[in-house]
Amino acid sequence: MKLVNPLTAIFHPPPTPGVLAVFGHLDATVDAIGQLRKGGHTDFTVYSPIPRHEIEDALDQPVSPVRMFTLIGGIAGCAIGAWITLYMSYDWPLVLGGKPVGSIPPYVVIMFEMTVLFGALSTILGIAFNALFAARRLGTVAYDPRFTNDKFGIFVPSELARQGQVEGLLRGAGAEEVRRA
Amino acid sequence: MAGTQTSRVTYDFVTRAIARTLGHPGKGYYALLGTAVALLGVGIVCLLLLLRYGLGLAGYSHPVYWAVYITCFVFWVGIAHSGTLISAILFLFRSGWRTAVYRTAEAMTVFAVMTAGLFPLIHIGRQWYFYWLLPYPNERGLWPNFKSPLIWDEFAIGTYFTVSTVFLIMGLIPDIAAVRDVATGWRKKLYAVTGLGWRGTNEQWRHYTRGYLYLAALATPLVLSVHSVVSWDFAMAIVPGWHATIFAPYFVAGAIYSGVAMVITLLVPIRKLFHLEELITVHHFQNLAKLCLLTGMIVGYAYCVEFFTAWFGGHPDERAAFWYRAFGPFWWASWTMFICNAFLPQLLWFQQIRTNILALFVISIFVNVGMWFERYVIIVVSLAGEPFERFANAVYNPTWADWGIMAGSFGWFFMWFLLFVKNFPAVSISEVKEVLPAPRRGKAVAA
């Protein structure tokens, strides 16, 4: 008896059934997005070789949560910068000429650098977490290598029964090529 | 930007033209790479001898204990700056022309900081103790002194290197995905891994564009801060010729000036070797030349202010230091600096010069030489003429160990740069496409 590898289910999930459309034009893609949204579709994926505001506007997505990562990372970095400089000064106080042991102005440099460092690293984490790793479904939806070159694409997940209707909608909006996946 | 590139330039053309740079590069490329590796070999041999026989080989003599290695450190950190200026500040200003040149500039930043970072290690003499630079207490529980500009510098350079590296890698992801989808063989596998599964979906772009914006915003103050902190290594000391409040802006302007010149020096051969004439046009070179002219004028102004302040301040030691700088035994270094940095770039006022690639290439090399000598003049000449124990001042001259390691640093830098442009997209594919008119039904409308 052949045992089922449990990791296969995580790393090689079965493909999502649906319809993949390839568009040669930006405005056709935007039209198709509008019609899909009107038709009640919400969980479709749009591929584009470059980020375009027209697509963003048509999708009307909320602002990315990456900014919270940046903010929290920056504040944490600033606090860590203040903490290491002050803690390290007071841990072994070197009193010179009655001047303050922990003196803020020179420590601002360290606080600033740590703000930028932690802010940048947490931004990277935010992008990775949100865009690259959290999108687990991504491995299961159909893709075409032309989408990073010069074509736009839309993948609409749908059961077999509705695929015909979605196909008609995408063709009507100006898709160059439509195929079922 | 529209209009500067021919109508033949479409999305597909951009992908193909840049993917082609990853193919067989021809003999010229290997000749350059071989030269770089040979130079690196010279540097390594000199470094090994330095390790064996000690820093005495570097010709250090009282009071010049910061010499060619620190000069090279400041030079390479400076080279790095224009990369971040072009990739981050011009990104925030939505400057379209940066798209074709920023990847090269950014890669230059990372490799220049990598080169710069070697010099403090070489300079400390006992390289195996480099970890003493890290903020941890010694055996008596004493921590590093955070009031010292040297430790600020360590944090500044460390942050700069980390942030510019992640910024470069971040920008590369969509482009690696684009070449992954047209590549074949082992390259496809390499790009499949390094592309991190990028597909250009709406969710990916949504987080990516936001994150990129914040990274640019975080990198922007670094352009100004890193070289300011480097300048404080000097300005916080009381050596005449170092102790000046103008140092931070003076160093930042100089850094961007030398960096832009280095971008021109690098782009001219890259464009020729990889046939990128249609993507990197004369328009881009002209804009770089204008940046060079602007920062060169600021640097020239700073030279004048330094001399004026020394005279107007009336302090005899300060006056003596600047007299020594211009007419002392190192006059040749100072006048090389003035001529290469302040006088020669005035030629860039003429459009015929700005649009002549060969002339720009030659001027950019002179600026690089001049900017190296600027650091030499500031660091070595100020120290050599310092007034504190004048009776004990010996004559300093750089030795073969200095020149050898400096040559090695150029080899190290060019080796990494050449390997990068051959193996990864040297021009941003997605950003060049962004400034092209998007394909629309019926007719193409300008973006």
Characterization of this structure:
The complex is a heterodimer of chains A (181) and B (447). Chain A has 181 residues and is α+β, with helices and mostly antiparallel strands. Chain A has two domains: 14-61 and 137-180, Alpha-Beta Plaits (2-Layer Sandwich), CATH 3.30.70; 66-132, no CATH class. In chain A, 53% of the residues lie in helices and 10% in strands. Chain A is built from six helices and four strands; from the N terminus they run αβαβαααβαβ. A four-stranded antiparallel sheet of chain A has the order 2-3-1-4, with helices on one face. In chain A, α2 packs parallel to α3, α2 (26-38) packs across α6 (160-173) and α4 (66-91) packs antiparallel against α5. Chain A is elongated, with a radius of gyration of 25 Å. The model of chain A has no long low-confidence stretch (mean pLDDT 86). With 447 residues, chain B is an all-alpha fold. Chain B has one domain. Chain B is 68% helix and 0% strand. Chain B contains 15 helices and no strands. In chain B, α3 packs antiparallel against α7 (202-235), α5 packs antiparallel against α7 and α9 packs across α10 (316-327). The longest helix of chain B is centred in the middle third of the chain and has 34 residues, at 202-235. Chain B is globular. The model of chain B has no long low-confidence stretch (mean pLDDT 89). The interface between A and B is large, with 63 and 63 residues.
